[in-house]
Amino acid sequence: MSFSSGVMIYVSLVEVISVANEYFAKTNSAEFAYALATLSFFSGVLVMALVDQIVHQIFERVTQKSKEDHHVLNPASGRGKEVDLSCLHATEEQGLCRADCTLHDDDGAAIAAVAGIIEKRRLLTMAAVVSAAIVLHNIPEGMATYVASFHSVTAGLPLAGAIAIHNIPEGLAVAMPIYHATKSKCRAVALGTLSGMSEPVGAVLASFVANEDSSQGAFGGMFGMTAGMMSYVCVSELLPAAYGEKGVRVGLVTFAFFCGCGVMALSLVVEKFALS
User: Fold this and answer.
1) Whose CA is closest to 203, among 176, 222, 180, 177?
2) Cα 188 to Cα 221: distance, rounded to the nearest angstrom
3) Does residue 269 carry a pLDDT above 90?
4) What whole-number distance in Å separates Cα of residue 87 and Cα of residue 109?
5) pLDDT tens, position by position, 14-50
6) What is the C-alpha separation between 276 and 256, in angstroms, rounded?
7) What are the phi and psi torsion angles at 60 (to 5°)?
8) Distances from the Cα of 240 to the Cαs of 10, 121, 137, 244, 272, in angstroms?
9) HSE-up of 185 (CA within 13 Å, CB side)?
10) Exposure pattern of 41-74 as b/e (b: 16+ CB <10 Å)?
């Protein structure tokens, strides 16, 4: 994730935002073009922040519902514990208590069966919500890959690779609840993969705005917004997740980040020499 962040941040702040400025400068003064590129960059940040806020609210609601269900289904709480204690302290009515315990065991088996069904439904609901959130989150990433590749395949290829790497944990977030609910590896892998298909949809949407018939301003706006979106994803999600990994040294995460920057920088330098 740290390596992916290095690739995405470097190409956003060094290449993509400068390309946005170039497109704006073709129809505006240098000062106004710079202002428009800056405005489009922060517009991308705001759009991604809004998407991120929606996704986190969905996650919070699902998490809260899961905690409530777990509390209801927890066999260690409520009446079951009370019955067990009464059986342990029974003296004169020991036979009656044993009968009550047997009855409670039968009730516990029935409750466990119902709890299994509810737990399966809860996991499937969680997978559905996570999938929806990831689909919403991946659309801007597909747009970013399209815009970068439209300008330069050399820049777009490492970016696509970096996004693919950080999509792996997102796919696992969808696949794991499905696997635990259905016990089907094929279904979990298929649906986890399917959740990432929103990125090509994002690329198609971007193609309607940035194509051969588009104005210079439309190109500049798309490039600027793309740079802002990618920067937000890196700073808000990828880097905190990378530094938060247990057992991973901070120096290694930092090194991976600058390795990503170096790979992206090298590809851009090679492209400049190849085109000169």
Assistant:
1) 222
2) 38
3) no
4) 18
5) 888 998 898 899 889 999 999 999 999 999 899 888 8
6) 30
7) -65, -40
8) 17, 31, 17, 6, 33
9) 0
10) bbebbeebeebbeebeeeeeebeeeeeebeeebe
CA distance 148 to 275: 17
User: Percentage of the chain with pLDDT > 70?
Assistant: 69
Are the CB atoms for 271 and 11 separated by under 8 Å? no
Look-up of token digits 């659309």: 139
User: Quick one: tokens of 107?
Assistant: 């009730």
Number of helical H runs and strand E runs in the chain: 11, 0
Q: Terminus-to-terminus CA distance in the chain, angstroms?
A: 33
pLDDT digits (tens, 9 = 90+) for 187-238: 888 877 887 788 888 888 888 877 766 778 888 888 888 888 888 888 887 8
**In contact, 47 and 137? CB cutoff 8 Å:** no
Q: Please compute Rg for the chain using Cα positions.
A: 26
Q: Which of 13-22, 131-140, 154-163, 231-240 has the lowest mean pLDDT?
A: 131-140
> Which of the two residues, 162 and 77, has the higher pLDDT score?
162
Confidence (pTM): 0.64
Query: What is the CB neighbour count within 10 angstroms for residue 100?
Result: 15
Closest CA to 227 of 6, 1, 44, 7: 44
Contacts of 153 (CB under 8 A, 6+ apart): none
